[in-house]
Amino acid sequence: MLTMYTLIRTTTILWITNLLDVGWSQNLQTINILFISDRNNLVAEETLNVALNYIRRNPRIGLMLDGIYSVKIGGDDASEILETLCVNYNASIRNNKPPHLVIDTTINGVTSEAVKSFTAALALPTVSASYGQSGDIRQWRNLDGEQQKYLIQISPPADIIPEIIRSIVVAQNITNAGIMFDDTFVMDHKYKSLLQNIPTRHIIASIDDTTSIKLHLSRFRDVDIVNFFVLGKLSIIKSVLDHANSNKLFGRKYAWHVITQDKGSLKCGCSNATILYVKPEPDAGSREKLSNLKTTYGLTSTPELKAAFYFDFYYRSLLAIRSMMNSVEWPTNMTYTTCDEYNEENPLPRRNIDLRRYLKDMTEPPSYAPFLIDTNGHSYEEFTMRLEKVTVLNSQSVSAENVGSWKASLNSPIVVKDAANMSHFSAVTVYRVVTVLQNPFMIQVDDEDGKGVVKFKGYCIDLIEEIRKLIGFEYEIYIAPDNNFGNMDENGQWNGMVKELVEKRADIALGSLSVMAERENVVDFTVPYYDLVGITILMKKPQTPTSLFKFLTVLENDVWMCILGAYFFTSFLMWVFDRWSPYSYQNNRNKYKDDEEKREFNLKECLWFCMTSLTPQGGGEAPKNLSGRLVAATWWLFGFIIIASYTANLAAFLTVSRLDTPVESLDDLSKQYKIQYAPLNGSATMTYFQRMADIETRFYEIWKDMSLNDSLSEVERAKLAVWDYPVSDKYTKMWQAMKEAKLPNTLEEAIERVKSSKSSSEGFAYLGDATDIRYQVMIDCDLQMVGDEFSRKPYAIAVQQGSPLKDQFNNAILLLLNKRKLEKLKETWWNMNPERIQCEKQDNQSDGISIHNIGGVFIVIFVGIGLACFTLAFEYWWYKYKKSSKVANTMNPKQMVIGRGEFTYPIIPNYETSGMRSRNIIQGLRRSISQSTPKQQ
Q: Is the pLDDT of residue 799 over 60?
């Protein structure tokens, strides 16, 4: 410190000598300063020398710095810092060179607060370049009106630059932000104020080394942050972007904004990235002066913006003191109190030093950008930040397009050239959706385009699309590695979709995921989007055997043969009785000549009579003889019994064949042993039966311990003495049966085992979600769902625990429910599903006999009609050809043939035949012929 002080003092003396030589002494103002800097703020210290050199080499300024006391402080010990300050301050008073101005370039923290406490207590005019907005500097938080005139804070550029993040977030409507910064920025006081009153989830993290970069990027990804802001040197920014490229954090899902105080182009090892690059640029009117300071006076500290700010900060502060002295507003009898003389109970008054007004009225052109002087926390340099769209391909910047600018301020909007360009810098909200393939909720579609893109369709796809229209987001779907919904093992570890959410690899779990208490402990569920769904049973549909001639199977073949034999025997017996009985019609024609019914029971008539007697039509006129009637009555009685028995047995036979349903509920399934049954291995259904069996076992142990407890009295033990076991062991037995049946690993395996069952009463039954089973029944007519649903739970969408998506999805699902969109989805994917098969209606108790079982009767009709047609043809043929030829062959050669018209009649010779009937017929035929036809030669 002494070396620097000697150097400055020597420089000042030489400068005074030069001023005296050129005649400027009449306007010269001698100023003493106390310069306080932070040990880490090297740019502030280097720039002070440039400012002093500039003042020395420009005598027209009218300034001479005589007493310059420079103090470097640091650390967290406020007492030590105050001690150092007091030593230098007391020395300046002893040397009769008390400071006109204290220049404070401490950054923040204990050092800054200690300096503020020191200058406020001793009432020293101070200009400070410490970080902090209104109220952030605690020691200057409650300054009175007079103190605010000479205790002045001007925020450095690195304190204003982060405010551009707020402007970008507002302009782009960004809902999440991950902010990283290096040691060139101070963000301690920004945590609460940077994005205050803006609905944006954000994390602010400092970059310490390479490890911290990896940690922060991983942390941002885990909490679903996709908009990144990096504030720092270009070298640090390059390191961050390189790590982001290796972690594949570029693309439409992510947005990158890099902000720096440095000059130069953006570089990174990115393969394909588009980045919004924000960097400062000097005002056009200040560039010449800035260039002169760099080349002539050695203003080469970096960053350029920071060095230029400190130069203007020093220079303008000293000019304000000079202006006050020239205008005679500076007190001539300025009094100072040493640290030893300071009394906290009697603070030193300081009035009429309006340094703030002189700084505000300063007209000196800036070297970078103008200053805005207002209250503490609202005074800063109004520089401009340039926004560029930088495209990097294969580690090379291929373009840098100017898209807008931002004027440094605490609440300044971004000025863009084209709003469409800025829209590309907002990360498209892309959620990772994990799912499980299950028809019809989630169906994988074949890649017809050949692009390798996995596509999906189904109920859940339509659902997420409806939600997306309401909320506005994009999503990527992938299948859970093990294609499971999510179950917890004995060690408390999860699998399936739940594991993907717990380990933050997915944002949404979409599928027919049941809401369970244990799952709600690790993930959040939305309101249900699907009704309560339980567990039910899938079995092979009973195949009722059908036969067109099933009505013939009611009686055995032996019975049919006996009935047929009885028919022929009775018909033959009736013919014999009618022929030999003297009381039959054919043997007593004169006796029954006046009866209307003259029926001769030849063999043909007997066969017909016995056949028609079995029908409602009846057999017609019975035989005249008593013996024949007894045979007919016996046949009628036989027929009545046979028909009644056949009718009753046919109805019973068809009914019993449709009642082949051995299992109708879970209890029925548990009580039989011919049908094996099991759920899918690792499914929620398996967990249900396993835990129910475990609960039964635990209850049994509790009851057993109570029963065998020796400490119980006889009365208490008697109360536990029961004749039946009080706790059911149904699930214990079922779980044991399931393990013996071997649980299938996939739904396809389970369906195959069900379909390969021998029958509905022997084979395999599958227990699973009712939606799975209902869909299988819908597409396969060989399957049926048996029993009522049990253990019913709703389906819902799962998100990460604490995710804001829960409330957004809740609102969307409730809105869809009110619009009846969910009902339409059910109608689409169940009743109108293109894979739905219209199965043949199965016979049941309420239905009639199907054509498959009674169709043989119609065949009998068609066969009978066919035989009748054939018989008619045969009769016609027999009569026309056979009979006529026979008559022709039996004629006498001497016979004469007479004819009339187109008919010819043979002339029958006069010969005697035996029997009265034959003679009468022949004589009548002769008379008719002779009367109607003349004789012909």
A: yes
pTM: 0.60
3-state SS, 409-439, equals CCCCCEEECCHHHHHCCCCCCEEEEEECCEC
Q: What is the pLDDT of residue 228?
A: 94
Same domain for 829 and 776, yes or no, is: yes
Shared domain check, 708 and 598:
no
Q: Write out the H or E segment, with its range, that includes residue 326.
A: helix 304-326
Give the chain's domain count: 5
pLDDT confidence band for 279 (50 / 70 / 90)? very high
Q: Give the pair of three-digit tokens for residue 601.
A: 């029971």
Query: Three-class SS string for 821-883?
Result: HHHHHHHHHHHCCCCCCCCCCCCCCCCCCCHHHHHHHHHHHHHHHHHHHHHHHHHHHHHHHHH
CA atoms within 13 A on the CB side of 847: 12
Q: Indicate whether 765 pLDDT > 80.
A: yes
Instruction: Identify the pLDDT of residue 28.
Output: 82
Q: Which residue has the tokens 């972007």?
A: 241
Write out the binding residues.
514, 519, 685, 769
From CA 5, how far away is CA 8, in angstroms rounded?
5
Question: Using CB atoms within 10 A of its CB, is residue 386 exposed (0-12), middle (13-18) or buried (19+)?
Answer: middle
- Domain membership of residue 257 (yes or no) is yes
Ranges assigned E (strand) in 758-896: 763-769, 783-795, 798-800
- Whether 924 is in a domain gets the answer no
Domain of residue 147 covers 25-156+300-380
Q: Binding site for L-glutamate, residues? A: 514, 519, 685, 769
Q: In the predicted model, what is the mean pLDDT of residues 94-104?
A: 92
Tokens 């204990």 sit on residue: 110
pLDDT band at 33 (very low <50, low <70, confident <90, very high): very high
259 and 400 co-located in one domain? yes
Give me the CATH number covering residue 734: 3.40.190.10
Whether 527 has a pLDDT exceeding 90, the answer reads: yes
Whether residue 204 sits in one domain with residue 127 = no
Is residue 540 assigned to a domain? no
Q: Integer distance in angstroms from the first to the last C-alpha of the chain?
A: 179
Among 391, 408, 424, the domain-final residue is 424
User: Domain of 605: which CATH number?
Assistant: 1.10.287
Q: Report the CATH number that the domain containing residue 376 is assigned in CATH.
A: 3.40.50.2300
Whether residue 566 sits in one domain with residue 603: yes
Q: With 0-12 CB in 10 A as exposed, 13-18 as middle and 19+ as buried, what is 869?
A: exposed
Is 849 inside any structural domain?
A: no
- Report the alpha-carbon distance of residue 599 to residue 105 in Å, rounded: 143
Residues 180 and 266 in one domain: yes
For residue 723, the model assigns a pLDDT of 62
75 and 174 share one domain: no
**Helix %, strand %, coil % of the chain (to 5):** 45, 20, 40
Give the model's pLDDT for residue 576: 80
374 and 401 in a single domain? The answer is: no
Select from 742, 741, 746, 798 the least CA-distant residue to 772. Answer: 746
Asked if residue 448 has pLDDT above 80, the reply is no
